Amino acid sequence: MNPTQQAPQIDLKNSTAIKNFDGGSLFKQGVILRTVSKFITGTSEDALLPIPVFYDPSTKKILTGSVPAELREELKDELI
User: Fold this and answer.
1) In this structure, are residues 38 and 75 in contact, taking their beta carbons and an 8 Å threshold?
2) In 20, 24, 45, 71, which residue has its Cα 20 to 30 A from 58's Cα atom?
3) Where are the alpha helices (DSSP H) in 1-80?
4) pTM score, two decimals?
5) Residue 77 and residue 10: Cα distance in Å, rounded?
6) Do residues 27 and 61 lie in contact, with contact meaning Cβ atoms separated by under 8 Å?
7) pLDDT, tens digit, for every residue of 11-62?
8) Number of helices (H), then strands (E), in the chain
9) pLDDT class for 3, splitting at 50, 70, 90?
10) Are 45 and 39 in contact (CB under 8 A)?
11) Of the candidates 62, 38, 57, 61, the residue with the CA atom closest to the CA atom of residue 49
12) Are the CB atoms for 79 and 72 separated by under 8 Å?
């Protein structure tokens, strides 16, 4: 995106609420950590890759839409 471009204006009335397990609207942010081989990163050690996600604070289940599509099958038991 060009730095001079502005993001489109979104009318929140045209959005849909996402509810947690208790029917509330509050989620917490966490990270999934992955290791990346030193052979891929070109460094002397393996690297940590943090992936930010949102999760339900009461169940600790991760919101599916916040997980990259490539990891959803692997994490399917942890998703809501």
Assistant:
1) no
2) 71
3) 38-41
4) 0.74
5) 33
6) no
7) 888 888 888 888 888 899 999 999 999 998 888 999 999 999 999 998 999 9
8) 1, 2
9) low
10) no
11) 38
12) yes
